[in-house]
Amino acid sequence: MTNISYRTLDMYRAGFYDDFQNNSLHGPPSEGRSMATAVNTDYKLAPNNDKLDHIPGSFGWPIIGHTFPLVKDLYGTIDKQYKEFGPVSRFGLAGFKGVLLVGPDLYKEVYLDRDKNFSAEMGYMGSLGRFYKGALLLRDHEEHRFQRRMMQTAFKNDAMKGYIGTMGPMIGEAVEAWGKNKEMLFFPAIKQTLLDVASEIFVGLDKDDSRADELNTAFLDIADGLMGIVTKEIPGTKYAKGKKAERFLKEFFGKLIGERRAGNGIDTFTFFTKEKTEEGEYFSDEDIVAHMSFLLFAAHDTTTSALSHLLFHLGQNPELQQRLREEAQAIDKDFMEYEDLEKMPLAEAATKEALRLHPSVMMMQRRTINECELGGFKIPANTILFMAPQHTHRMGEYWDAPLKFDIDRWLEPRNEHKRHSFSFVGFGGGGHKCIGMHFALMQVKNFLHQFLRRYEFRLADNFSDKMQTVPLPKPVDDLPIVLTPISK
């Protein structure tokens, strides 16, 4: 996301990734496994290693590396590198030199990180760390484990039951208003809808509250700052504007902590302010501010991207669209309840299939702490590791007809995703698995329940089949669709 966006938006949204179900990964090491050294932070002071001549591959052009080919055709660029050099290769991207890893075996080793040798913090420090220092992604191992406790409470069942009660009516109101126009651009419409939902659920701001717009502007300014060429706070630069926005977020959330802690809100921010450490102390204001800022940034567009790709495929397949509609209609109530979520397995399979073909996070990174071996190659300490999920998601060794949109691959009896536990990493994996995975699926199911019961739809005649990968993965034309209201 600095490939003008490769190291900005996509990689930074990867920070929304935290473990939701894999708590066992952080338990005591299994017998025979070496325990990580007691909190050694010396690696955070070391520069990135780029001495990788012993590894086949190419860094690409000076400074920019493979940035431009990736922007134009991510899958094709990674596939070419893989076929020419294998699953481990020397690679350059947006000013960074490192090693590209391809395939679920390598992903499993890095994501599980059994020897605590892969740093997410240092993987993103040169990009995300400029604006979101202290965010959950910029924490490693025990520190990460300690901090994630604050966020886990906000995504447990009790909290989620409160969220769904807010989410359904808001999405329903927005979707109902879309019927005024026969043809519409889906991407900006769903982006605004989900932004309103996020402001209400995460921050406790009504969609008509002017502060919600101020927050959105701040995140956009930081996104621009992350993509800026100049990385010093010189007046008039994107970077300076982004740093100003960073200070705004710190002040905004910092001022509200006491109020939220004393209140009875059911928003995520309130949950964070009331969470305590094992010693009974509140988490620091600094930690709360860092996690709230990054949560909103990282979650801001990922579901928007997933839904846009999902409707791109459903709009071309009326039979599949009808299957999902009948599933939604079977929940015969105005708004879904938490217990209804498990009644939409087709919607979940369709969402995962959209993420398989079009991951919302196109590139993920780590950095080695000590020398290690990956795929038969010695990887020196302090080496950046690049991982592109889309390529692994399309490997024929693990997926039948991998370029085809086919939701049944996720269902009995096929269950293709079970062929390898890391052949699908649309929600990350291991200790950094998406803490908001169930929230995202809940949001998608709520949307489909509201949308498919109201409308049949198709793609507009002039739609484009081209996809944008930066700054956010989505159809290049913002997905024009034609709506046909369903008579009640």
Task: Provide the CATH top-level class.
Answer: Mainly Alpha
What percentage of amino acids are in beta strands?
Answer: 5-15%
Give the helix/strand class: alpha+beta
- The CATH architecture can be named as Orthogonal Bundle
Task: Report mean pLDDT, rounded to a whole number.
Answer: 89
CATH homologous superfamily heading: Cytochrome P450
The main sheet comes to:
6 strands, mixed
User: Helical content, roughly?
Assistant: 40-55%
Instruction: Find the CATH topology.
Output: Cytochrome p450
How many whole angstroms does the radius of gyration measure? Answer: 22 Å
In short:
The protein starts with 5 loop residues before the first helix and ends with a strand.
Give structural notes.
The chain is α+β, with helices and mostly antiparallel strands and 488 residues long. The chain has one domain: Orthogonal Bundle (Cytochrome p450), CATH 1.10.630. The chain has 17 helices and 13 strands. The strands form four sheets. A six-stranded mixed sheet has the order 1-2-3-9-6-4. Strands 5-13-10 form a three-stranded antiparallel sheet. β2 and β3 form a beta hairpin. It is globular and about 65 Å long. The N terminus is likely disordered.
